[in-house]
């Protein structure tokens, strides 16, 4: 033991600072292997989840069924105005929940419908006038155009935005609606649905 101490004490002083520097420059990666990374805090309050907190993988109860969020979308309408859309799957059917949270919360639920299901020839109308029809008829019910918007769309799980034009139609009772989206010159998508209230959704749970 005495021999070891004697050998250490004979180390030149110029070496000692280098020894201290090595101790200070230990990589944090080494400590992370032992202590792990800090768990990221969720963006929502787990004890008070609302419909506006939905994320891909969440589950929610609606209309006596449990639905899983299988996709999350975002729309940019310009001027700092964004809306969200979620694809809900119950195992037997799919719905699209659109959320507009501006001055007040507005919810709508829709299903996709083929563009040829309308009595009007939507593609031909745009080809002739380059304008949307004033009204459309689906399954014997007439819907009147109330809004049109230009914006951008993205799937939040992917990169990049796509430009679209959106046209919204309502029936005379203002209870059900039709939405037609135009992507480019000749690509169209349509959906029909109804408006909803937040209280209709319950048991919102994250995907742990």
Describe the protein.
This protein has 208 residues and is α+β, with helices and mostly antiparallel strands. The chain has four helices and eleven strands. It has helices spanning 2-9, 16-24, 28-35, 122-129, and strands at 59-62, 65-76, 82-89, 94-101, 105-113, 135-138, 141-155, 162-170, 176-183, 187-196, 201-205. It has an eight-stranded antiparallel beta barrel with strand order 2-3-4-5-10-9-8-7. A hairpin with a 3-residue loop joins β9 (176-183) and β10. The longest helix has 9 residues, at 16-24.
Q: In what order do the strands lie side by side in the largest sheet?
A: 2-3-4-5-10-9-8-7
Radius of gyration: 29 Å
How much helicity do the residues have?
A: 10-25%
What is the terminal-to-terminal distance? 56 Å
Which word captures the global form?
A: globular
Helix and strand content put the structural class at alpha+beta
The largest sheet, given as strand count, sense and whether it forms a barrel, is: 8 strands, antiparallel, barrel
Seen as an oligomer or otherwise, the chain set is: single chain
Q: What's the helix count?
A: 4
Mean pLDDT: 85
Taken in chain order, the helices and strands follow as HHHEEEEEHEEEEEE
Uncertain segments of ≥5 residues (pLDDT<50)?
1-9, 13-24, 26-36
Number of strands: 11
- Our estimate of the beta-strand percent is 35-45%
């Amino acid at each position: 033991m005495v021999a070891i101490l004697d050998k250490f004490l004979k180390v030149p002083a110029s070496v000692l600072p280098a020894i201290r520097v090595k101790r200070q420059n230990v990589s944090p990666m080494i400590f992370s292997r032992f202590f792990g990374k800090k768990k990221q805090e969720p963006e929502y309050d787990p004890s008070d989840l609302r419909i506006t907190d939905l994320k891909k993988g969440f589950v929610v109860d609606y209309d006596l069924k449990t639905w899983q969020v299988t996709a999350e979308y975002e729309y940019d309408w310009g001027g700092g105005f964004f809306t969200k859309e979620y694809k809900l799957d119950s195992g037997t059917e799919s719905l699209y929940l659109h959320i507009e949270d501006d001055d007040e919360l507005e919810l709508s639920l829709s299903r996709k419908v083929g563009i040829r299901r309308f009595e009007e020839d939507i593609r031909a109308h745009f080809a002739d006038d380059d304008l949307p029809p004033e009204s459309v008829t689906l399954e014997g019910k007439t819907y009147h155009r109330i809004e049109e918007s230009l914006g951008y769309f993205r799937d939040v799980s992917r990169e990049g935005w796509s430009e679209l034009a959106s046209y919204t139609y309502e029936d005379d009772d203002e209870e059900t609606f039709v939405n037609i989206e135009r992507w480019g010159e000749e690509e169209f998508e349509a959906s029909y649905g109804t408006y909803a209230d937040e209280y209709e959704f319950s048991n919102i749970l994250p995907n742990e």
